[in-house]
Amino acid sequence: MGMSEQKVGAGTAGSVLANRLSEPLHVTVLVLEAGEVVPLISQVPLIPLYLPRSNYSWQFKSVPSKTIAQGLKNRQLLTVEGKALGGSTVLNYNLFVRGNRKDYDNWARHGATGWDWKSVYPYFLKLEDNREYCNAYHGVGGNVIVQTPPFHAPITKGYLEAAREIGYRIGDFNARNQTVFQPPQGTINRGARWSAVKAYINPVRGRRNLRIITSAFVHKILIRNKQAYGVKFEYRGQLHEAYANKEVIVCAGVFNSPKLLMLSGIGPKRTLKKFNIPVVANLPVGRNLQEQPTTFGMAFGAKTYTYSAQRITILDYNEFLINGTGPLTSLGGVDTIGFVNSKYNNDPDWPDIELLLFSLSAVPKGTGLGSVYNVNEEVYKTMFEPFTSTDTISCYPYPTRPKSRGYVSIRSRNPYDDPIIDFKFYSDPYDLKVMVEALKYCLKIANSEALKKYGVYPFPVTVPGCESYVKFSDEYLACLATTLPFTIYHYCGTCKMGSYADPTTVVDPTLKVKGVKRLRVVDASIMPFIITGHLVIPTYMIGEKAADMILCDPLYN
User: Fold this and answer.
1) What is the pLDDT of residues 302-342, one digit of tens each?
2) Percent of the chain with pLDDT over 70
3) Contact between 556 and 24 (Cβ < 8 Å)
4) DSSP states of 102-122
5) Which pTM was predicted?
6) What's phi and psi for 355, nearest 5 deg?
7) Which residues contact 185 (CB under 8 A, 6 or more apart)?
8) pLDDT class for 387, splitting at 50, 70, 90?
9) 324: exposed, middle or buried (C-beta count within 10 Å: 0-12, 13-18, 19+)?
10) How far is 79 from 284, CA to CA, in rounded Å?
11) Are strands 227-235 and 238-250 parallel, antiparallel or unpaired?
């Protein structure tokens, strides 16, 4: 089949491109998505705890760690990445956090020309349809609807009082100053999830020049004379080839984009030679993997009513379906987000710690302790089982700009083999120092006068393996962080963007793969550095900016 344009992956950025690139009628777009359309249950914002271990996520695991993760089964971290039309927007926490202007200026300073804050800000405004804030910092009328969920647990008031008590303001971290606390806005509409499918794909489904095939598993990019001309993919048990007379655009995500490039001969020469894959371009594909490491070990009991999945009743479902209100509209249980500074940070306007405050009781069995966090039996029995009928709250802290770098690689030439993923959390000791400071913030908030009114108290148990340290000392907190690590789903960096001359980059600032014509990568894998925030909104922005660059390319005109 001949197509003028081909896209692999209909995730966050891929959905934006499907919409924007099919606007000019002379451009024909074929989108190949390995996943399917998600079930209706995914509309419920409180549901992210359940979808990650379904067929709608790739369910990759990291390699067993030699240095950390003693509290996890087989010392492996589980990843959560959407395998569906809409990608991770169908199972993320819907949180609207753009990052800090200095993040993007830093990208540009390191060679990602044209990606400074002044250049990306118009795209953030373009994509946003904020139903509450009408000011210079927010967009109205874009594809991505943004609102504050109608439901907040009563203890949210306590979180905000506690923030003031420890010296932080309440504000909008997507506005002038990011170092504030706020009950977050989310990508929801009338209480229901607003995914990339609703935002970008549904409005253009009828376009004749756009074809989307789901359950289409791409094996490799077809390349001749260092020029991409199509892809080989499997659909309903048969292999097909699709040809592009303009470009092939890879939007397969932080793990699958590097994997696909390597299977197609683009990657580190040593890896390709090991699997007898002919080298098309020797590039550091799969290096520079970044993630903000957190821990689920900071749970507290509360003598006030918090809500749990076990307490959701048929009445709550009715309230959600009829009015778009009630606890099911909560953004995965995240009631408040705060950005704070550690003693190591010398720029107070570029916070180096983020705190997620959850009011959803995460302890009852079946809410993800085993399936999402991969907790081993000993940790579950010691730390959580005694509190299954207790009301709990949690604080998830993490360094916003960790220095540790991991990698993604291929296991073999077989496209069906999962990639090798090693986050190398805390391989740079600086990250653990910041994490200890972050955990101290959780304790400060939990011990505040504001939360004492809600009867908040630390669990009277010790993390298995950390018994030799004084409880809540720096050493104990470091032990907790390394024993019970968890990924926050903010993976990026594996197809690094930057200057063509920089040997650490894979794509140039127009997102073209170096040394291969007519091939681009457009997803979170191109981020040179992780940003101070969450990745879904920046990934939409990458899609919007890429679409403009692509349509301005002489190839399309």
Assistant:
1) 988 677 766 788 999 999 999 999 999 999 889 999 999 99
2) 96
3) yes
4) HHHHHHHHTT-TT-SHHHHHH
5) 0.96
6) -120, 130
7) 96, 130, 132, 133, 146, 147, 148, 174
8) confident
9) middle
10) 22
11) antiparallel
Averaged pLDDT score across all residues of the chain: 94
105-141 pLDDT, tens per residue? 999 999 999 999 999 999 999 999 999 998 999 999 9
Q: How far is CA 523 from the centre of its chain?
A: 11
CA–CA gap between residue 11 and residue 316 (Å, rounded): 30
The answer on pLDDT for 368 being more than 70 is no
Look up residue 190 and give its two tokens: 């009338």
Count CA within 13 A, CB hemisphere, residue 358.
27
User: Mean pLDDT over residues 11-21, rounded?
Assistant: 97
Find the helix or strand (DSSP H, E) in which 443 lies: helix 429-446
CB-based contacts of 237: which residues, under 8 Å, 6+ apart? none
| C-alpha dihedral (474, 478, 479, 484), degrees to nearest 10 | 140
Active site residue 534: no
Written in H, E and C, the secondary structure of 153-182 is CCCHHHHHHHHHHCCCEECCCCCCCCCEEE
Out of 110, 138, 219, 490, pick the active-site residue.
Answer: 490
Q: Place 2 in a pLDDT band, splitting at 50, 70 and 90.
A: very low
| Pairwise CA distance, residues 356 & 46, whole Å | 15
Question: Can you list the pairs that 60-66 forms with residues at least 24 positions away whose Cβ atoms lie under 8 Å?
Answer: 60/255, 60/418, 60/419, 60/421, 61/374, 61/418, 61/421, 62/421, 62/422, 62/423, 63/420, 63/421, 63/422, 65/425
Residues 450-479 have a mean pLDDT of: 95
Region of 288 please: left (phi>0), alpha (psi -120 to 50) or beta. left
CA–CA dist 261, 9 (Å, integer): 13
Residues 6+ apart with CB under 8 A from 455: 301, 302, 303, 304
In degrees rounded to 5, what are phi and psi of residue 298? Answer: -105, 70
Question: What are the angstrom distances between the C-alpha of 191 and each of 40, 160, 203, 325?
Answer: 14, 22, 20, 6
The alpha carbon of residue 185 and the mean position of all alpha carbons in its chain are separated, in whole angstroms, by 16
The model's pLDDT over 209-228, given as tens digits with 9 standing for 90+, comes to 999 999 999 999 999 999 99
Side chain identity at 357, as an amino acid letter?
L
Distance of CA 477 to the CA centre of its chain: 25
